[in-house]
């Protein structure tokens, strides 16, 4: 079966010292480990945020050959790479965030240049400024990016923010697919232990994004030509759709600006399949339909699918036809690969 992974991340091997260039602190950089003497293991590094260790990573993040070898190992034909959200710089002045977007977007294409038939990239944009975001996403598309990844909020602005909707309309007009990734998770002071920011905060963030798009009238206002996909199976959204629907029907204030009940909008967005559980995958297929789900792994991070594609391939309930849609054909259509 053909396999296309739409949710994987890259980090360039090195880039200029952003703290030195712009001042301030908390800039991302990679601290590389001493090379393995026999060179038998992939190189390791620590992704740093200023002086703080953020996440241990290995060379699949920046070395296309390591990535391609592991794709071969697991039978992945194509992979779409996107930035790690720590590179977004949404809280910096727009000139600095625009500079970072160009820097990392060009670096992504450089990684993909190793095999342009198998590796594809999503761009990042300085989402704190909508004009600059529209300029950068159009530039990136012209350079070869197959879509754009955005963080699911900018500070207190959710997906129904006027500016974010303007950006989404621009993407719809230019036929640029959008992938929404959770980041900068809510309740960080109460989820700092046990990786709860990732296991609890991220799914809640994504649910919040889809709900705000629906109830904020986002899907009513933006053209239905918009291609938009939310990460991690939509987080908590599918499981809690009944609760949302019940509230919409029985409380006026829970309707927000949406013209229709929440379930009406399920044909307006896609979700990836990074849910790591067959029952959860079955629920997504049941709620969203087999046309609106695309295989995603979160490779090469520790919370990603360790053997890429296994969840879908080993499903006892999905037909081969559905599996093929989820594993590749939906993504090839969505991203025009
Ligand atoms: Zn991810």
Automatic annotation (TrEMBL):
EC number annotated for this UniProt entry: 4.1.1.45
SUPFAM superfamilies registered for this protein in UniProt: Metallo-dependent hydrolases
GO molecular function terms listed in the Swiss-Prot or TrEMBL record: aminocarboxymuconate-semialdehyde decarboxylase activity; hydrolase activity; metal ion binding
Coiled-coil portions: none
GO annotation terms (biological process): secondary metabolic process
Pathway membership, UniProt: Secondary metabolite metabolism; quinolate metabolism
Assigned keywords, A-Z: Decarboxylase, Hydrolase, Lyase, Metal-binding, Zinc
One Pfam family this sequence matches: Amidohydro_2
A GO-annotated cellular component: cytosol
Residue intervals of the Amidohydrolase-related domain: 4-336
Stated family: Belongs to the metallo-dependent hydrolases superfamily. ACMSD family.
Assembly, per entry: Monomer.
Protein name, as recorded: 2-amino-3-carboxymuconate-6-semialdehyde decarboxylase
Organism: Shewanella hanedai
UniProt lineage: Bacteria, Pseudomonadati, Pseudomonadota, Gammaproteobacteria, Alteromonadales
């Amino acid at each position: 079966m053909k396999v296309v992974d739409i949710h994987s991340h890259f980090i360039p091997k090195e880039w200029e010292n952003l703290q030195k260039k712009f001042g301030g602190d908390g800039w991302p950089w990679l601290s590389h480990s001493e090379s393995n003497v026999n060179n038998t293991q992939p190189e390791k590094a620590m992704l740093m945020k200023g002086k703080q260790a953020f996440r241990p990573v290995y060379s699949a993040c920046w070395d296309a050959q390591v990535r391609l070898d592991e794709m071969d190992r697991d039978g992945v034909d194509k992979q779409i790479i996107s930035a790690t959200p720590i590179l977004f710089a949404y809280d910096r002045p727009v000139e600095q965030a625009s500079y970072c977007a160009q820097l990392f977007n060009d670096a992504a294409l450089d990684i993909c240049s190793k095999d342009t038939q198998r590796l594809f990239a999503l761009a990042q944009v300085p989402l704190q400024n909508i004009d600059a975001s529209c300029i950068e996403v159009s530039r990136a598309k012209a350079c070869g990016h197959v879509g754009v990844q955005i963080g699911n909020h900018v500070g207190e602005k959710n997906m129904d923010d006027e500016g974010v909707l303007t950006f989404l309309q621009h993407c719809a007009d230019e036929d640029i697919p959008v992938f929404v990734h959770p980041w900068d998770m809510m309740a960080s002071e109460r989820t700092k232990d046990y990786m709860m920011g990732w296991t609890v905060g991220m799914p809640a963030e994504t649910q919040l994004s889809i709900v705000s798009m629906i109830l904020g009238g986002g899907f009513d206002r933006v053209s239905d030509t918009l291609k938009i996909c939310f990460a991690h199976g939509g987080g908590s959204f599918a499981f809690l759709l009944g609760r949302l629907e019940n509230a919409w029907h029985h409380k006026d204030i829970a309707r927000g600006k949406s013209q229709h009940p929440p379930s009406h909008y399920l044909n307006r967005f896609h979700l990836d399949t990074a849910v790591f559980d067959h029952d959860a995958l079955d629920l997504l297929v049941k709620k969203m339909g087999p046309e609106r789900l695309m295989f995603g792994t979160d490779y090469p991070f520790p919370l990603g699918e360790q053997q890429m594609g296994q969840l879908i391939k080993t499903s006892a309930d999905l037909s081969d036809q559905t599996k093929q849609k989820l594993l590749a054909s939906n993504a090839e259509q969505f991203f025009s690969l």
